[in-house]
Amino acid sequence: MVAINEADSPAIAPTLAIYQRARQMNIAVFFVTGRLPSLQGLSAQNLSDVGYIDPAGFYMKPSDEETIPFKSGARAEIESQGYRIIANVGDQESDLAGGYADRSFKLPNPFYFIE
Known about the structure:
This protein is α/β, with parallel strands linked by helices. Helices cover 39% and strands 12% of the residues. It has one domain: 3-Layer(aba) Sandwich (Rossmann fold), CATH 3.40.50. It has helices at residues 2-6, 13-24, 40-49, 67-80, 93-96; strands spanning 30-33, 57-60, 88-90, 104-106. The protein has a two-stranded parallel ribbon with strand order 1-2. Strand 1 (30-33), helix 3 (40-49) and strand 2 (57-60) form a beta-alpha-beta unit.
């Protein structure tokens, strides 16, 4: 939790490159995270500092909500706004479960695994 509170995590270069290319193509990008709403300011600042500029939206998980229903529900809400989710990218299976995306891409994470 210390790294989150310090808001100085580096960007993962290939993921940032995908984000920047999507934005160049006028593709809206949303962040759906299991981080608590109390960390939104720090998280948004860290993302901005490392190059994730102008996301279309930020969804933070309330502490009392299960991860998969929250994340799939956020994607459903994004689609209800008229967006089509062409790619869902995450480093945990819970990031990808529950549908609402044309394609899902699981990134490796050597640091932690959420069941």
